[in-house]
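Working notes for the structural subgroup meeting. M.R. asked for a predicted model of this chain before we commit to crystallization trials. I am recording the input and output together here so anyone reviewing the notebook later can reproduce the run.

Input as submitted:
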Amino acid sequence: MSDLRPVTLSPATKQKLLSVSTATLTSQLINAGFRNTFLTGVYPLAPGSRMVGYAVTLRFVPAREDLVATSKAPRDSQQRLAIEAVGPEDVLVVEARGELRGAIIGDILAMKMKMAGGAGVVTDGAFRDSPACAALEWPIYLSGVNANRSNLYHYPAGRNEIISCAGVAICPGDIIVGDGEGVVAIPPQIAVQIADAAYEQELREQYIMELVSAGAGTIDIYPPNEATLAAFQQWRQAKGL
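Returned structure, recorded in token form:
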């Protein structure tokens, strides 16, 4: 197990994380004492996106003319090294400081990560070539699109270090989950606990939704009282869940 991936999720845990919503995950993270895990202002480029993987990170700072003038060749650029290193189940999380005037990635680099088995990419910045990127049918989460190239406003300064993305601290190896609403970062040491609790919450809410759709009021069932929880257990056993 590498230092960048302190835990390895079982297939069952990964499936639970893929099956639940980021809303449920954030609720369970709050219950566990983690209040700032949802990346506000980051959205899926394509509807229906789902993603789970391990964070690898890239950090951009504001461009400055002397830095841009001495930019390294592609083989030595922190951006290109980060992208080339993306492997199976990795999610590249990019700190772009919410700067949307220049894109940080386009379609060719996105295709490279997809073909390497990457699980997706997340940034609080912008992409270019966005129609082509959307057509890749690969999870891309971003804060905007812009045709301008990156070095007008960004300089790649570091990789595989703690970063800030959309106001959330991201450490290499964090478990990154995305759905149609957005992205949540889960500390790896509690990923199994959160996945199990979120799965159980959604089972209860499936039962509650059935009651509400049949005309029940919500006061005593959401959140569920003891009688509702007892009825839920009977419902669950009957369905073999």
